[in-house]
Amino acid sequence: MAEAEPRQLMVHRAAVLGSPITHSLSPVLHRAAYAAMGLDDWSYDAFECDEARLAGFLAGLDRDWAGLSLTMPLKRTALGLVDTVSDLAVAVGGANTIVLRDGRRHGDNTDVYGIVTALTEAGLGAPGSAVVMGGGATAASALAALSQLGLKEAVLAVRDPARAGEAAGVGERFGLDVRVMTLDRVADALPADLVVSTLPGRAADEFAEPVAASGSALFDVVYAPWPTALAAAVEQAGGLAVGGFPMLLHQAVRQVAMMTGRDDVPVEAMRAAGHAELARRATP
């Protein structure tokens, strides 16, 4: 009697792609979820990948792959490389998630969910007025999220109004009345219930004084180092400042659910792992 062939262990692979990718927190968050969910046959990695290489990377994936997280600069490019795409991703103009199933690629956007959940969790889920600083992809997602929270109009403050059309168009597609102004006049739009800074690094430092003085709550998408000068000024003035980590956490929670097909995603285990990693990175 012939011996039965040993059963092969089914492997499920996922990863985050982007450029640069070295400091991504996504592997920490997703691996923490897999560990808490008992998904011992799941792995999550990070790969340096720019727009020119994305199509080739996708073409080389086999059926072990369950999904991809996408960061800059891949979100828009991904829209043209998937078989199906959610209405939300199309409206926002970018997919930060690709779910791979049955040989097909489905593009989606969890950034908007991440922002909505982060703001709601912080008690900022119903702003009556808002100023969004910056005009890139994250600003577009922020405008979409604010619309979902019931906002009717918003100010979009950018350095160059000629480059604000895409983000403003996203807001308008979601029913917002968007007024574009230059960043150097942002004080004229204050106070607001909420200021959202999507500016990178220390680019928002120069606006710390007017934002803090206005008494506006702040959502700053930067998560490290934290607090930013802008957030520190708001907190020192007695205001509420929310960093980018809760957004990153909750968009990852939604990605884990999409890729695994499970809804018992361990938010607090992922939160703890993320905080621990940020603390480790901040230690000299």
Low-confidence stretches: none
Q: What distance lies between the first and last C-alpha atoms, to the nearest angstrom?
A: 64 Å
Gross geometry: globular
Structural class: alpha/beta
| Neighbour order of strands in the largest sheet | 2-1-3-5-6-4
Helix residue percentage: 25-40%
Descriptive account of the structure:
With 284 residues, the chain is of the alpha/beta class. 39% of the residues lie in helices and 20% in strands. The protein is built from eleven helices and twelve strands. The strands form two sheets. A six-stranded mixed beta sheet has the order 2-1-3-5-6-4. It has a six-stranded parallel beta sheet with strand order 9-8-7-10-11-12. Helix 6 links the parallel strand 7 (130-133) and strand 8. Helix 8 (208-214) packs parallel to helix 9 (229-236). The longest helix has 16 residues, at 245-260. It is globular and about 60 Å long.
Summarize the structure.
This protein is an alpha/beta fold. The protein contains 11 helices and 12 strands. The protein has helices at residues 26-37, 51-59, 75-78, 87-92, 111-121, 137-148, 165-173, 208-214, 229-236, 245-260, 267-282; strands spanning 12-18, 42-48, 65-70, 84-85, 97-101, 104-108, 130-133, 153-158, 177-182, 194-197, 217-220, 241-242.
Describe this protein with a few key phrases.
6-stranded parallel sheet, 284 residues, globular, 6-stranded mixed sheet
